[in-house]
Amino acid sequence: MTPKTLTSSPHAPTAAPRLEARGITVGYGDAPVIEGLDLWIEAGRITALVGPNACGKSTLLKSLARLLPPAAGSVLLEGADIHRLPTREVARRLGILPQSPLAPESITVGDLVWRGRHPHRQFGQRRTAADDEAIADALLATGTAELIDRPVDALSGGQRQRVWIALALAQDTPTLLLDEPTTYLDIAHQIEVLDLLADLNEQTGKTIVLVSHDLNQAALYASTIVALRDGRVVRQGPPAQVLDADLVAEVFGLDCVVVPHPRSDRPQIFPLGRRHLTQER
After folding, report:
1. Using an 8 Å Cβ cutoff, are 63 and 239 in contact?
2. Measured between alpha carbons, how far is 208 from 64 in angstroms, rounded to an integer?
């Protein structure tokens, strides 16, 4: 299959975006990973950033979270330049779960998740009933309540990942950015986490942005797919408008068959490796 050149989707937000990148150039040192990128994140939706390794997904997420300042352009959080907002105010409005976060040595699960409440406390303020409720709800939602007194460094990779998600939930922000939240999880726990995020989105209107390497999971759970390659947005829009065989060939260099999911009609991708292309039907 010869990939065709794709352009950004005309799909545009129907309301003011929760997060917006305007012409941002971001990188490390003198090497830009993203250059002149425009992106909007619609409020109250689940947006999945997809693309090959080193295409700029994590760099973009860090820039949206104010962890990596752009060399040019601006990031707007609810219409305001995110770098001009007070740090505590940003932390109350936007939560971030980076890739492979590190916990302080010997910290317990309960103490780690408690840190998610810090943006809501004044200096010297004691722990409140609202804090306890938020922590308990986050632990229950992620299936980690029984781990509350365990040291984080004694947990399995999958358990640690769910605890970090609990911390992000306890922060209780209207916008949540997650870099590969299903890393280290088996398939059952992956779906549990994605179901949890979908429930939060539907029940509370939380805006969720996640980086995903699984196109099929992204198609099933996201309202909007943003496909990136070489630091640029190739296409953005609903899964059915974005994920087709031409897009997968353009972005990933992979031949595939795309069919509707039997329950939801959302696109599902079946890759065609070299062996599959040469096999007779």
Report:
1. no
2. 12
Q: What is the CA radius of gyration of the chain?
A: 20
Model pLDDT, residue 7: 36
Residue 199, phi then psi, degrees to nearest 5: -65, -45
Local structure of 113: helix, strand or coil? helix
Answer for the pair 221, 268: CB distance below 8 angstroms, yes or no: no
Q: What share of the chain is helix, strand, coil (3-state, %, to 5)?
A: 40, 25, 35
pLDDT tens column, 227-256: 999 999 999 999 999 999 999 999 999 999
Helix or strand holding residue 139 (H, E): helix 129-141
Distance between first and last Cα of the chain = 18
> Can you tell me the distance from the alpha carbon of 148 to that of 140, in angstroms, rounded to the nearest whole number?
10
